[in-house]
Structures are given as structure tokens and as C-alpha cells.
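STRUCTURE:
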């Protein structure tokens, strides 16, 4: 059954309708990317596109008959904005896990969705919302499973000794007495680690940004008319409000770090460099006379490759000479004399054999140090935020901090625009003087009684006996 005019609504054997129309200029027939439940819906689709032709804003949707999986491969290989192999491989790996494969429960009420098997023009905002919900749940489940599978970094007897109040060192060999007592107690193990409330949130936001960028490129290539990724805030991971790191805590953290790597902690705090940049530095990258450090590369993992590898820094413009203060230069000079090889390519912070410090060993050292100062929530990246916070407390502007962190936008630097509790208390202590008030003082009176602790305005305070006329 066909309708009259340039549009067609053909009834299929399934009972659904297939819509199509002829373009008056080219006489080429264009089909809808999906079928419709009723003839009226199919005709409405035809009228919408024929009206677009009359208005002069018609778009050839058939150009979008490209599988998303095929376009993703082309986009990753040719995207000029992806300059690092590690970023490209990360996007490829995450797309294979969370974009291309089928997500959701086929037998569930919402069904499943497989973007990789769909063409670009078949993906509409409703499909993206369905995919996002399934992807978010799948990423969360994966993050929880990984957290529960994490093996403890220490012997369970050491944990048991601390829990039961027995004196035990944070590292080193356990005494036979502790081990025997632990065995007699039934060899208890620490409870399984719990996943954080926001587990998987960063991956979810990053995967959504990848799909958004992919489909934005499809719009630019005139394969689709609009980007169907329209979920507000889906590309932004929620910020975790961590307790600020005080100067005393930084000092204690460094003191509890292995002596061989203690200077790396100070270096991270003074320079705000990322850990991959810190542990990629060589002797030739440091000029102590001029107090300059050359940030030219970073060390880290590359998806699909084993071990650690050197690569260019994370962001463009990072390859630069960064000035360091005299105090840090003194610390580095002592460290390089005792722990850095003499060759220009020798790593600044290295193992006793001159090799790259494995990230797992770095994590172990940091975990031990943070537990000793009772800050198990700290991460190495918090040293970077602490560096920015200390700059703000010294009176730095947001522009100063942005340059210090090598950020490109004010919004990124603004995340660190917070001060410590000590700094806030110090600032609030000055409120009394601002309003002409004194701290709580003795103000006896008929209604208040002696020692009431009433705050008295300056102009009401009694004159001092020692004050001269």
C-alpha cells in the first residue's frame, strides 16, 4: 500500500511500515533508518523531510549509513587531536569494552543496545540514553569487581596485630610471636575492600566524551546532521571533595617515605608535576646552578603493551624548562649525589640497579607512608593539588596557579582553589578585629555574672588601668 505524492509508506510482512521519499531534484529515493508501527508515523517522517527540502535545509541522511564500528576505527587512526599512542590505545580499549559491544540485558524490560552494530544515522538521542544507562551500570559493576579482587598489600597478621593493639612495625619481617598468636586466633583476614561510592565514574565520563567526540566528528564530516549525545553533565565525573593536605602532613609523609625516594615527594609538592613526569626525569634534565628542570617526557603504561614506557608528556606545552626554588635545589643536590647515576641519561629517581621504579612499588611506598600519618585517603596526585593550594595561600592568582600546573583553562585551575582548615581558621580569627570585637573576656555585670565570657565591643570595654591620659 503506497501513499500518493513523493512520499511512500510501504507495509511490510511484519505489519510495520517502511517510509521513503523521492528527492525532487535528484529523483533519488531515501529510506528511513528504521520502520514504523503505523502508517501515519511513516507518513509524518516523509512530510518532515520533504518540508526540509522545501525550506532548503534538507540533509542527506543516507550518508550516515556507515557502521559506528567502522567509523570509530577510522576516527581513532586519523584524529589529529589524539597525539599520544597511549591515549589512542586507551580510547580503542575502552571503546571495545563499553561502546562497540552489546550492553544491557536482552531479556530485561529495557532490552540491550549494541552501538557497534548500528549505523551512524540509526543512533538517536533515545538510543544514546539507553546505551549510557547500560554502560554506566556495566562500568560500575566492573569497578566494584576489581575493588573486591584487590589483594591486601601486607600480611594479614600485621593487620590483625594492629587491630588487636599489639605493637608491630609497618614493614619488615614479622616476629614469630606475632605469627603464632595470629595463627592461634584462627588466622583472621582483613575484611574485603569496599568499592568507593563513585567507583567507575571517571571511566563512565571519559567513555561518554569519546562517543560525543566521535559523533561530533561525524557531524563535521556531514555524515549526520546533529550529534545525538545530548545528556547534560554525562561527560563530567563528579569531583571528590578530599580533605586538604596540610604542610605538616606533607612533611610527615616525606619523612615516612624510603630515604631513596624521599626527594621525589618534595619534588612533586614543589613543582606540581604528575608522577609520570617526576619519575621520567634524568640527570641531564636538571640544572642546579640555574635552578631549572626540563620536563620533556613522562613514564607510564601503554594499553596493549607490557611494562612501563617513556612517552611525551600528557598535554601540549608541557615540554618546557621549569624553575625550582633554592630549597628544592638543595634537596635535589643531596639526592643526586647519593642516589643518581653519573651519566646524563641516568634517571633522577631510580631503583638501586638504575631501572624505572615500578608503579606498584611506588604505590606500596606511598600506601605505607600515608597510613603512618593516618591519611589512608591520600593519593600521589593529591601532592599536585596540595602544591596548587599552597600557592593560593601564598597569595597566588588563578593565572599563577594555572601556569604552575600547566593547565590550559581557568576552570581546571579553579578546582584547586581551596585552602586548608588552618588557613580558614586563621582568616576567620581576624573577623573580630574587623567588627571591633575582642575574644571572649570576663565581663561581670548584674545580669551576666562574673566570668560569663560575653564578647564586648571595643567601644564598651573599660579603660585599662595602665593607660595614660
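SEQUENCE:
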Amino acid at each position: 500500500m503506497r501513499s500518493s505524492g513523493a512520499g511512500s509508506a510501504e507495509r511490510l510482512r511484519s505489519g510495520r511500515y517502511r517510509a521513503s521519499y523521492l528527492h525532487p531534484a535528484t529523483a533519488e529515493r531515501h529510506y528511513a533508518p528504521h520502520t514504523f508501527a503505523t502508517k501515519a508515523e511513516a507518513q509524518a517522517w516523509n512530510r518532515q523531510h520533504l518540508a526540509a527540502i522545501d525550506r532548503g535545509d534538507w540533509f542527506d541522511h543516507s550518508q550516515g549509513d556507515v557502521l559506528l564500528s567502522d567509523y570509530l576505527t577510522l576516527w581513532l587512526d586519523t584524529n589529529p587531536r589524539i597525539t599520544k599512542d597511549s591515549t589512542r590505545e586507551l580510547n580503542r580499549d575502552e571503546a571495545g569494552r563499553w561502546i562497540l559491544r552489546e550492553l544491557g540485558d536482552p531479556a530485561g524490560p529495557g532490552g540491550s543496545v549494541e552501538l557497534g552494530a548500528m549505523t551512524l544515522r540509526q543512533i538517536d538521542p533515545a538510543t544514546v540514553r539507553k546505551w549510557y544507562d547500560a554502560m554506566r551500570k556495566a562500568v560500575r559493576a566492573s569497578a566494584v569487581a576489581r575493588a573486591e579482587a584487590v589483594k591486601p598489600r601486607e600480611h594479614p597478621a600485621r593487620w590483625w596485630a594492629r587491630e588487636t593493639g599489639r605493637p608491630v612495625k609497618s614493614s619488615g619481617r614479622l616476629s614469630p610471636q606475632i605469627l603464632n598468636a595470629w595463627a592461634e586466633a584462627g588466622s583472621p583476614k582483613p575484611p574485603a575492600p569496599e568499592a568507593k561510592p563513585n567507583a567507575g565514574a571517571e571511566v563512565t565520563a571519559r567513555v561518554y566524551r569519546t562517543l560525543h567526540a566521535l559523533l561530533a566528528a561525524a557531524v563535521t564530516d556531514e555524515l549526520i546532521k546533529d550529534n545525538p549525545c545530548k545528556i547534560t553533565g554525562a561527560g563530567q565525573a563528579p569531583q571528590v571533595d578530599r580533605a586538604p593536605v596540610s604542610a605538616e602532613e606533607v612533611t610527615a609523609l616525606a619523612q615516612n617515605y624510603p630515604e631513596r625516594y624521599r626527594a621525589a615527594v618534595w619534588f612533586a609538592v614543589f613543582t606540581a608535576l604528575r608522577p609520570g613526569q617526576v619519575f621520567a626525569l634524568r640527570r641531564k634534565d636538571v640544572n642546579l646552578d640555574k635552578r631549572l628542570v626540563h620536563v620533556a617526557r613522562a613514564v607510564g603504561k601503554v594499553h596493549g603493551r607490557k611494562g612501563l614506557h617513556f612517552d611525551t608528556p600528557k598535554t601540549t606545552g608541557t615540554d618546557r624548562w621549569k624553575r625550582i626554588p633554592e630549597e628544592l635545589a638543595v634537596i635535589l643536590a643531596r639526592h643526586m649525589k647519593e642516589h643518581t647515576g653519573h651519566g646524563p641519561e641516568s634517571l633522577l629517581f631510580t631503583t638501586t640497579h638504575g631501572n624505572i621504579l615500578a608503579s606498584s612499588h611506588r604505590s606500596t611506598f606511598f600506601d605505607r607512608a600515608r597510613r603512618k600519618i593516618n591519611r589512608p585517603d591520600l593519593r600521589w596526585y593529591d601532592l599536585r593539588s596540595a602544591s596548587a593550594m599552597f600557592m593560593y595561600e601564598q597569595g597566588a592568582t588563578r593565572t599563577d596557579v594555572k601556569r604552575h600546573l600547566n593547565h590550559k583553562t581557568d576552570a581546571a585551575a579553579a578546582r584547586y582553589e581551596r585552602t586548608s582548615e588552618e588557613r580558614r581558621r586563621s582568616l576567620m580569627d581576624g573577623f573580630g578585629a574587623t567588627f571591633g570585637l575582642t575574644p571572649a573576656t570576663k565581663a561581670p555585670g548584674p545580669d551576666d555574672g562574673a566570668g560569663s565570657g560575653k564578647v564586648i565591643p571595643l567601644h564598651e570595654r573599660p579603660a585599662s588601668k595602665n593607660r595614660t591620659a
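REMARK: Confidence is low (pLDDT under 50) at residues 1-5, 441-459, 464-469.
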